[in-house]
Amino acid sequence: MALSNLAANESNHDHMIHRGVLKVALRLGQSKDEDIRLYAAFALANFAGNTAQCAAIGDEGGIAALIMLAHAEDSNSHTLAVSALRRLCQFSARNRGRIVRGGGLPPLAIAGMSEELETQREVAATYCNLSLSDEYKVEIVEQGALRPLIKLAQSSDLEVARQACGTLANLAEHLDTHSHFVAERSGNFLIALMKHRHEEIHREASRTIANLLSSFENHTDMIADGLPGLVHLGLSLDPECQYNAALALRKLAPNFASHRGIVYEGGLKTLFFLLHAKELNTRRQSVLALRDLAANSEFRRMYVEEGGLNALITFLRDVDASLQAPAVAALRHLTSLSSHPEIKQQVVEEGVLRPVLRCLNTNPGAKGLRDLQCQCAGLVANLSEHTANQQKIVSEGLTTALVALAKVTQDSAEILQDVSRALANLCSNEENHKVVYKQGALLCLIQLTESPDDITQRYSAMGLRFLSANPTIRVHIVQESLLQPFIKLAQSPLLDYQRTAAAAFSSFSLNEENKLKLVRDGGLAQILRCCAFDDLEVKRDCVFALANVADSLEHQLDVVREGAISAMINVGAHDDARVQRDCARVFASLSITNSIKPELVRQGALPSFFRLTRSLDVATQRFATLAICNVASSGDDKAFIVEQGAIRPLTHLIRFPDAQIQRYAALALAALALGGMGNNKLRLIEEGAVPPLIDLLRYPSADVQLCGCLALNALTLGKQSVTKVSVMQSGGLLPLLALLASTDEECVRCALYCIGSLAESKDVLQKLVELGTLAHVVALTKCIDTETLRNCGYILALVVEQKTDYHDDMYREGGLDAAISLAFVEDMECQEYATF
Question: ARM repeats located where (predicted)?
Answer without folding.
Answer: 144-172, 266-308, 307-335, 397-441, 481-523
